[in-house]
Each structure stands twice: as structure tokens, then as C-alpha cells.
Amino acid sequence: MSVGTGQKPPPATDVFLAPGALVPAATLAAQQGPEHVVEPVAYDAILLAGFGGPEGQDDVIPFLRNVTAGRGIPDERLEEVAHHYRHYGGISPINEHNRQLQAALQTELAARGIDLPVHWGNRNWAPYVPDALAAAHAAGHHRLLAIPTSAYSSYSSCRQYREDIADALEATGLGAELVVDKVRQYFDHPGFVTPFCDGLAEGLAELRGRGATAIEVLFTTHSIPTVDAERSGPADRDFGDGGAYAAQHHAVAEVVMEAIGEQDTPWQVVYQSRSGPPSQPWLEPDINDAMAELPGQGRDGVVIVPLGFLSDHMEVLWDLDNEAMETAAEHGLAAVRVPTPGVHPAFVAGLVDLVVERLQGTPVAQRPARTGLGPWYDVCRPGCCENVRRGFRPAAAGLQP
Predict the structure, then answer these.
(1) Class for domain 190-337, per CATH?
(2) Which residues does the annotation place in the binding site for Fe(2+)?
(3) Binding-site annotation: residue ranges
């Protein structure tokens, strides 16, 4: 058996499939691919799966090489993005946020009397997912429940995490010894939604206190290629333009506005942080373009709600707190940015609720979901969140392909 190497593993060529199972690397309760697992599972550890980020100037380009692996992007192009990180000393805040979340989860679990260690591993920087799996195995843990640090359905926010788990199982040689299930996508779980409700109510109050009278709420999330958005979610469900990814964000935004009694306040879902060639369509409108239109519509203030983000990582610090705020000032808009969930008590408790669902096999009717789209699937469905450029690669926690 090999072990975690402290490097991003290569793409898996296969993923262990138990005899008679339909879902690779899954517990017995999930092996046949039910939409929701309503049988209790005795997990012995949690895998907190993060994106990862550099922690010094020397890390920046190697990190970006990991993120863009397989695309053939030269270092000169990567430097165009690297300056965002270099502005902050080459340090992304995302790893520190994950350390805080890992500790908060461990505290919440202990408070509830749940004896489950939380192993943290990243997709693109140390500690890597293979290192977390190797550490879990060395500690005698064999049944892991993964919590990805992403709430929505798309290739980059769901399936790619599942692919990286498969990559890690192959790289460590632990595919026949570990099983790894995944909690459902939690975009509409009350624990995820509540922090945004709190933040938006406070943001609106702040702007009104500063004299703004015609405010628009911009719910922002990471843009993705349109072709990926169209394939987000199960292949057998039609979510309209933008697929499940866009539908989930719109549904949550509507719930947040209703929850704080602001149904009559104008709002829209916007996108940010796009990359790739200009010829490739990505989800729009861009947040900066949307703000440029607001003065002509009589708006004098904007509340930015980072609905697609769990913590204040680089796309929040740079693209929102710098670029978007500069755009607002340029167009004479009073602006405030709402906090991300981070380690908000409701969010941390909600993640542990998701763990308890799987420990107890909670019936679907008893699972909270704030939109009509949920509760989402425990086991990802066939053809879910395809990346047409890469094809279907081996992935854990879902029915093939």
C-alpha cells in the first residue's frame, strides 16, 4: 500500500467497486444507489474536503498549477491570477477558515456526544485528500462521511470533489479498505441559509441608516461555463437555463428575501470570478456589469450577498471586497457586503445535522430543506454534473458514470 504523498494525486484510472455494488467505495447502505439513505450507518470518521489555497508567495504558482492541471495553461497566464494572492502576501485565507471549521465541527460533535474525528484534506494544496485518508486509515477509521466545502451542484462544486476522493483512494491504495460516502448538497439546509438571512437583514439596515432609499440586493456566486451549468444536477431532471446550479441559487435567494420580509425589495442573482477564454460562454450577468446598470434604474445602494461561498476566501476578498466595491463607488452606489457562513453557529450545527441524518438514517420527510428542490440526494445520480471537456472520470459517492 502507498500512502498520501503530500502532492495532488493524478486522475484515477478506476475506483474500487465491491461485488454487486452500483456505487464505488460506498458503505453497504449506499452501495445500491438509493436517492436517500434511510438506513443508519456507523461511520467512524468525517472527511472535511476543502479546495485548498497557498500559504506563502512560493506556493502561489504551484497551487495554481494544481487548480488548472490538465489544461496546459502556461505560468505566464497563471501570473495574471497570482497577483490576487500576492496582494495578500501569497496567502489565501481558505486554509485558516477550514482549520476553524474543522475545530468548530469537532466542538459541536463533542457537545452532542458524537465521537467522530474530523480529518481535513484539500483538493489543491496541503493537507491533500490522500493525506487525510491515509491519516484516517492509520488511526483505524474505515467508514468516512465526506463534507465538501461547497453547497451547490455543478462539476466544480460537487462532482470534482467526488473525483478527487476517487483519485485519493487510488493514490493511497486504500480503495479496498476505506469507504467514503458524502452528505447531501446543503444549499437549502436551514443551517446554510440562516447566516445569509441574518447578514442581509443587517446589511439592509446599515445601508438604510446611511441614507440609501432605493437598494438592490445582488446575490453573487462563482460563474461557471454555461455548458457545465446546463449539465449540473441529475441528467434526467430539467432545471431550465443554467441547470441545477442556477436553479438552486435562485431558489435560495428567493427564500432569503421572503425569510426577512423583503419580498418587495429588488434583487437578482449575479455571477463573478469567471475565467477561461472570452469565446467560451459563462453564466451572466457579471456582478460589475449588473452594478453599472443600477444607477440608470434609480438605485442608490446595493447589498452584496456572497450566496455561493462558505467562507471569505480569495474570490470574496479580491473580487468582492476590492473590485466590486470599487465598481460601486465608481457608480455612486452605497454598498455593503454580507458575511459568508464561516463558523456561524447555525452553519456548524447544520453540518452536524447532516452527519446525524446519515448516522440515524433519517427519513426524507424529516429532513429540513428551505426550497422545493430539496432535500437533495445522498447518492449522486447517474450522469450528474458532467464535465464535457474531460468526460466522466471515476468518482466516489455516486452512481456511475
Answers:
(1) alpha beta
(2) 222, 315
(3) 92, 161, 222, 315
